[in-house]
Design brief:
- By secondary structure, the chain is α/β, with parallel strands linked by helices.
- It has one domain: P-loop containing nucleotide triphosphate hydrolases (Rossmann fold, 3-Layer(aba) Sandwich), CATH 3.40.50.
- It is built from 4 helices and 7 strands; from the N terminus they run βαβαββαβββα.
- A 7-stranded mixed β-sheet has the order 1-7-6-2-5-4-3, with helices on one face.
- Strand 3 and strand 4 form a beta hairpin.
- Helix 1 crosses helix 2.
- The protein is globular and about 40 Å long.
- Keywords: ATP-binding, Cytoplasm, Magnesium, Metal-binding, Nucleotide-binding, tRNA processing.
Length: 153
Protein backbone atom coordinates (compact mmCIF):
# COMPACT_ATOMS: atom_id res chain seq x y z
CA UNK A 1 0.00 0.00 0.00
CA UNK A 2 1.25 3.47 -0.87
CA UNK A 3 0.28 6.34 1.44
CA UNK A 4 0.98 10.03 0.91
CA UNK A 5 2.46 11.36 4.17
CA UNK A 6 3.52 14.77 2.90
CA UNK A 7 1.54 16.33 5.76
CA UNK A 8 3.12 15.39 9.11
CA UNK A 9 -0.32 14.62 10.56
CA UNK A 10 -0.64 11.76 8.07
CA UNK A 11 2.62 10.25 9.33
CA UNK A 12 1.18 10.51 12.82
CA UNK A 13 -2.02 8.72 11.73
CA UNK A 14 -0.11 5.89 10.07
CA UNK A 15 2.02 5.48 13.20
CA UNK A 16 -1.08 5.55 15.38
CA UNK A 17 -2.60 2.73 13.31
CA UNK A 18 0.46 0.58 13.95
CA UNK A 19 0.49 1.54 17.63
CA UNK A 20 -3.08 0.20 17.82
CA UNK A 21 -1.95 -3.01 16.14
CA UNK A 22 0.83 -3.45 18.71
CA UNK A 23 -1.39 -2.48 21.64
CA UNK A 24 -4.32 -4.72 20.74
CA UNK A 25 -2.42 -7.87 19.79
CA UNK A 26 -0.29 -9.52 22.43
CA UNK A 27 2.42 -10.53 19.99
CA UNK A 28 5.76 -9.32 18.64
CA UNK A 29 6.27 -7.28 15.45
CA UNK A 30 9.37 -6.48 13.42
CA UNK A 31 9.20 -3.18 11.52
CA UNK A 32 11.82 -2.78 8.79
CA UNK A 33 12.16 0.95 8.09
CA UNK A 34 13.81 1.77 4.78
CA UNK A 35 14.56 5.21 3.40
CA UNK A 36 17.21 7.85 2.94
CA UNK A 37 18.52 10.04 5.73
CA UNK A 38 15.77 12.44 6.78
CA UNK A 39 13.00 10.41 5.11
CA UNK A 40 10.91 10.16 8.30
CA UNK A 41 11.89 6.82 9.84
CA UNK A 42 12.67 8.13 13.34
CA UNK A 43 9.67 10.47 13.21
CA UNK A 44 7.44 7.47 12.48
CA UNK A 45 8.87 5.60 15.50
CA UNK A 46 8.45 8.68 17.71
CA UNK A 47 4.78 9.01 16.73
CA UNK A 48 4.19 5.29 17.25
CA UNK A 49 5.70 5.42 20.76
CA UNK A 50 3.69 8.53 21.63
CA UNK A 51 0.48 6.82 20.46
CA UNK A 52 1.33 3.91 22.78
CA UNK A 53 1.60 6.34 25.69
CA UNK A 54 5.33 7.01 25.89
CA UNK A 55 5.79 10.45 27.45
CA UNK A 56 9.57 10.64 27.53
CA UNK A 57 11.98 11.76 24.88
CA UNK A 58 12.42 9.61 21.79
CA UNK A 59 15.86 10.07 20.35
CA UNK A 60 17.41 8.70 17.23
CA UNK A 61 19.58 5.68 18.01
CA UNK A 62 22.10 6.66 15.32
CA UNK A 63 25.01 6.88 17.75
CA UNK A 64 23.84 4.58 20.54
CA UNK A 65 22.54 2.09 17.94
CA UNK A 66 19.80 0.75 20.25
CA UNK A 67 17.14 2.39 22.41
CA UNK A 68 14.70 0.36 24.50
CA UNK A 69 11.34 1.51 25.82
CA UNK A 70 9.10 -0.32 28.28
CA UNK A 71 5.40 0.50 28.45
CA UNK A 72 3.59 -1.73 30.93
CA UNK A 73 3.86 -5.19 29.34
CA UNK A 74 5.09 -3.91 25.97
CA UNK A 75 8.81 -3.94 25.15
CA UNK A 76 9.84 -1.73 22.23
CA UNK A 77 13.28 -1.66 20.66
CA UNK A 78 14.42 1.03 18.23
CA UNK A 79 17.66 0.47 16.39
CA UNK A 80 19.52 2.37 13.69
CA UNK A 81 22.00 0.21 11.80
CA UNK A 82 23.35 2.94 9.50
CA UNK A 83 26.84 2.77 11.01
CA UNK A 84 27.17 -1.03 10.98
CA UNK A 85 29.40 -2.79 8.50
CA UNK A 86 27.96 -6.29 8.88
CA UNK A 87 25.20 -8.28 10.54
CA UNK A 88 27.86 -9.78 12.84
CA UNK A 89 28.19 -6.38 14.49
CA UNK A 90 24.47 -6.40 15.28
CA UNK A 91 24.76 -9.88 16.79
CA UNK A 92 27.52 -8.55 19.04
CA UNK A 93 25.04 -6.21 20.78
CA UNK A 94 23.02 -9.19 22.01
CA UNK A 95 19.55 -7.77 21.42
CA UNK A 96 17.08 -10.11 23.10
CA UNK A 97 14.24 -10.74 20.66
CA UNK A 98 11.47 -12.90 22.05
CA UNK A 99 8.89 -13.40 19.29
CA UNK A 100 6.49 -14.81 21.90
CA UNK A 101 6.50 -11.57 23.91
CA UNK A 102 4.35 -8.45 23.53
CA UNK A 103 6.32 -5.78 21.72
CA UNK A 104 8.11 -4.66 18.61
CA UNK A 105 11.46 -3.84 17.11
CA UNK A 106 11.83 -0.90 14.74
CA UNK A 107 14.91 -1.30 12.54
CA UNK A 108 16.27 1.61 10.54
CA UNK A 109 18.62 0.55 7.70
CA UNK A 110 17.50 -3.11 7.86
CA UNK A 111 19.46 -4.01 4.74
CA UNK A 112 22.53 -4.19 7.00
CA UNK A 113 21.27 -7.45 8.55
CA UNK A 114 19.26 -10.50 7.58
CA UNK A 115 15.58 -10.44 8.45
CA UNK A 116 14.65 -12.23 11.67
CA UNK A 117 12.01 -14.49 10.16
CA UNK A 118 9.52 -13.11 12.66
CA UNK A 119 5.97 -14.17 11.75
CA UNK A 120 4.82 -10.54 12.01
CA UNK A 121 7.17 -8.55 9.77
CA UNK A 122 6.20 -5.22 8.27
CA UNK A 123 8.23 -3.38 5.64
CA UNK A 124 7.94 0.41 5.41
CA UNK A 125 9.78 2.27 2.65
CA UNK A 126 9.88 6.04 3.16
CA UNK A 127 10.47 8.08 0.01
CA UNK A 128 10.61 11.81 -0.37
CA UNK A 129 11.14 14.43 -3.02
CA UNK A 130 11.16 18.21 -2.81
CA UNK A 131 7.38 18.40 -2.68
CA UNK A 132 6.11 14.96 -1.63
CA UNK A 133 6.66 12.29 0.99
CA UNK A 134 5.21 8.77 0.75
CA UNK A 135 5.49 5.46 2.56
CA UNK A 136 5.08 2.08 0.92
CA UNK A 137 3.89 -0.54 3.40
CA UNK A 138 3.85 -4.30 2.90
CA UNK A 139 3.83 -7.56 4.83
CA UNK A 140 4.00 -11.23 3.88
CA UNK A 141 1.58 -11.96 6.74
CA UNK A 142 -1.95 -12.03 5.28
CA UNK A 143 -3.61 -10.75 8.47
CA UNK A 144 -1.22 -7.81 8.66
CA UNK A 145 -1.64 -7.14 4.93
CA UNK A 146 -5.37 -6.93 5.48
CA UNK A 147 -4.81 -4.51 8.35
CA UNK A 148 -2.50 -2.40 6.18
CA UNK A 149 -5.12 -2.24 3.44
CA UNK A 150 -7.62 -0.82 5.95
CA UNK A 151 -5.38 2.04 7.09
CA UNK A 152 -7.20 5.29 6.53
CA UNK A 153 -5.41 8.59 6.82
Amino acid sequence: MLIDITEIEKTKKVASNFANLIQNNKTFYAFYLNGNLGAGKTTFVRFCLEALGWQGKVKSPTFGLIEEYHLQSIKLIHTDLYRLNSSDEFDYFGVDLDFQSHGAIFIEWPEKIEKFNCPNEIDLRFENSKSKRVVKIASNNSEISGYINRIDV
